[in-house]
Amino acid sequence: MKDQKKLSIPKIKERLKEKDVSPLFLHELKKDSRKSVQVLLKSYERKCELIRIKKLEYEQKSTFEAKFWSQNKIVAGVDEVGRGCLAGPVVCGAVVLDSRHPILGIDDSKKLSVRERERLSEEIKKYAICYSVAIISPKKIDQINILEASRLGMLQAVNKLKITPQELLIDAIHINSSIPQTDIVKGDARSVSIGAASIIAKVYRDALMTKYDSFYPEYNFKKNKGYGTKDHLSALEKYGITPIHRQSFSPVQKFNA
Questions:
Q1: What is the mean predicted confidence (pLDDT) over 105-115?
Q2: What are the C-alpha distances in Å from 130 to residues 99, 232, 251, 252?
Q3: pTM of the predicted protein model
């Protein structure tokens, strides 16, 4: 590119947003003496390094999937959220990722910020081959216990997928399915498919608990999402249980008079 220094700052910003930035263009920017240009270049280089790291992390976290993808098998990740809550349902997700479209940044949903989870949830829904969410109510949890409720929700999520998977990757739980499955301890942090399932389930459940907050504002569900936080326990002490509390859980039982 001739006379690089004459490019305006807005034009350089625009060029650096392009999908494929020419190495020659970057080389010319390094020779540009303007301080603002060097700031833009450093920012671009940091962004590229972050993307490189995320690509490497994605590759490391897709080793379970890669074994099946290499055999052209359809593999689904399955996970649950809300298992330890005192109120609200347990929500389970199932996701079949597209091996041709890596979604960078997938991780255990609890490790991500709200903004990151919501962004990734939309990206997963857009680019995954298919996904589903299943909900098990507090009443059902009380009837069959939380472990069996989690298993039931995971099975329902798998059965709701538009495409039947040939392999399942599940976060440390075995479900009653004829589909071959691999149980992975801390799977939401070690498998992109399980991580993706945890993300869509978490975003769905958080939105649901925020809705419940409008019915039961005293419990601050929009903040604690039904977990046994100090404000939640204080509200139980003062106002008692609601229809969405899990009455079989010990912190709630004593208020079920």
A1: 93
A2: 12, 36, 38, 37
A3: 0.86
- The SS3 of residue 89 is coil
User: According to the 3-state scheme, what is the secondary structure of 139-188?
Assistant: HHHHHHCHHHHHHHHHHHHHHHCCCCCCEEEECCCCCCCCCCEEECCCHH
Query: For 49-95, how does the pLDDT look when each residue is reduced to its tens digit (9 = 90+)?
Result: 888 888 999 999 999 999 999 999 999 999 999 999 999 999 999 99
C-alpha 191/C-alpha 63 separation (Å) is: 8
CA atoms within 13 A on the CB side of 36: 8
- Residue 240 and residue 232 in contact, taking contact as beta carbons nearer than 8 Å: no
The sign one gets for the Cα dihedral 9, 12, 16, 18 is: positive
For the segment 235-244, the average pLDDT, to the nearest whole number, is 94
Nearest-angstrom CA–CA distance, 155 and 69: 22
